[in-house]
Design goal:
The protein has no helices and ten strands. It is an all-beta fold. Strands 5, 6, 7, 8, 9 and 10 form a six-stranded antiparallel beta sheet that branches. Strands 1-4-3-2 form a four-stranded antiparallel beta sheet, with no helix packed on it. The N and C termini lie far apart (41 Å).
Length: 123
Amino acid sequence: MATNFVQDGRMLNVTNSTSADITSGQVVPVGAVLGVAMDDIAVGETGVLAIDGVFTVPKVSAAEINQGESLTWVTASSAFDSNAATAATGDITGATAFAAEAAGAGAASLAVKFTGVPGTVKA
């Protein structure tokens, strides 16, 4: 194995530099990449985020989302919206995640494929 190998890249070690604990299964932005916490991560502690895989995560209840649609991560509600949503400051759009299934209005969650590819953070 290469002497400079760090990890396979589907998981990233991150330090919780926020003011709140991160819970297992929570979607966590790291710059322009989204990941899912594999375990609880206390403030100041290091834990693991999956940046590749399919997870059931929160969605904006009113959103109509088609399978395969790229998504907008809405920071204010900590939920995914359709790609037609108007992004607000801090929201993440683009290639970082897409809908693994369709989800209609009224659904509170959907299966999302995280890609590990950076999206765009709305300034």
